[in-house]
Amino acid sequence: MAAEAPGTLPVQLVEQPRLQKLKEMFISKFGSAPKFYVRAPGRVNLIGEHIDYCGYAVLPMAIEQDILIAVEPVKTQVVHLANTNSLYLDFSTSVNNIQINKTKPQWHNYFLCGLKGIQEHFGLNNPTGMNCLLDGTIPPSSGLSSSSALVCCAGLVTLRANGKTLSKVELAEICTKSERYIGTEGGGMDQSISFLAEEGAAKLIKFSPLRATDVRLPSGAAFVIANSCVEMNKAATSHYNIRVMECRLATKLLSKSKGLDWEKMLRLHDVQTKLGVSLEEMLTIVEEVLHPEPYSAEEICKCLGISLEELRSQILSQNTQDVSTFKLYQRAKHVYSEAARVLEFKKICSEAPANALQLLGELMNQSYISCREMYECSCPELDRLVDICLQFGAIGSRLTGAGWGGCTVSMVPTDKLNAFLEDVRKAYYQSDVQRLALEKNSLFATKPGRGALVFVEA
Question: What does DSSP say about strands 36-47 and 453-457: parallel, antiparallel, or unpaired?
């Protein structure tokens, strides 16, 4: 599957009201009809938070919410972007001069990331222009990967418009790299699941090399997404990128203490691989080597035998230059324990013991506590929402996505689902006017959906 290109599906627009409506809006906007449509889904990560960029496997599934783009390749070398949501302004640029503004993560810049990634991969000297109209159903800045879905959708749009082909894996890897144009140091989970997802199964996604394995979720439970309604724009905040750096610095200090070539080591997974030890043994090493008190930049320099200038120029990213303290012990502890929980989650799904739901719920709860206490990527609203979900019958509940806002994912027994949705609605959404306005798209059960696709009129 992963070696294949994304599928192309002929559709009758009369049977697809959303595509039909998008076509009509496209014609009224551009005066001509789209030639094809591309969709890329958002995702929910069931377990394995903040560990993809450390080299560890994660366990997401694609959701039904998606980014859908209607496309008409044009003779001029200009890309015209429009959005069905009037809050997002039109944008035009020459395809030969892609400028991505890192300081303002506006919607069109994510499209340009995907476009630029494909252009650079093929060295396109004469890329085709396009008229594009976008319709998105993923709540923005909710931790369901709306921005990565847009990058992936734009990559597939550009690929198709220029008559090129790539496998799903190649597309995922290009889109992961190209999202960094906007300053997000992501690890690849979001792009991988957007392309590699298949209906009916979550995926265990491993990196370097990228590969995905089906994970059949147990029957008897539904996965419910609940949005805290606190928006967190990943590229606009330094939180996320500081965590990436803290993991990189922990990697360097652990490597140096074990006599490894620390300068070449970038990810916590690399340390485990080089030492040839288990995740449990890595947790013991973390206890021995790192201290729980925050490290100053000066102390890190002393440990590594480098100057502050070398730390800034050779290790820290551009947007973490001014950070003065780093929590290395807590971040490493989270990553190694969370990586073990992912493998345990997959094992339980495969073996399907009688108490599988209970065991999976416990893993989700442990993951959440680690995200809150060790990785410090929760917020008061997420904490409250998790409490409410557990109070009203969830077996397990945790934040999903980067955190600091966004969504929770809860595992709920199927027979309690309707009562659960009603109770959470009353307890979290109806107590707050702003949340009540957003409630329709904020609380829903979801099942594993399919990955990115091209639609053409039959």
Answer: antiparallel
Residue 190 is among the residues annotated as catalytic for this protein: yes
Q: In this predicted structure, what is the pLDDT of residue 440?
A: 73
* Residue type (1 letter), 157: V
Q: How far apart are CA 171 and CA 311, in angstroms?
A: 33
CB 208 within 8 A of CB 55: yes
Buried b (16+ CB within 10 A) or exposed e, 21-51: ebbebbeeebeeebbbbbbbbbbbbbbbbbb
Q: Return the closest-CA partner of residue 253 out of 332, 136, 188, 162.
A: 332
Name the residue with tokens 């021995």. 288
The active-site residue out of 190, 261, 270, 432 is: 190
Residues 248 and 300: beta-carbon distance below 8 Å? no
What predicted TM-score, i.e. pTM, was given to this entire model?
Answer: 0.91
Q: How far is Cα 438 from Cα 226, in angstroms, rounded to an integer?
A: 11
CA dihedral of 139, 142, 147, 149, whole degrees rounded to 10: -70
Say which DSSP state 431 is in.
Answer: T
Query: Phi, psi (5° rounding) for residue 399?
Result: -70, 155
β-strand pairing of 78-83 with 129-136: parallel
How many other CB atoms are there within 10 angstroms of residue 398's CB atom? 30
Span 148-185, pLDDT tens digits: 999 999 999 999 999 999 999 999 999 999 998 987 77
Decide if 360 contacts 229 (C-beta within 8 A): no
The owner of tokens 């995907």 is 114
Give the whole-angstrom CA distance, residue 211 versus residue 450. 16
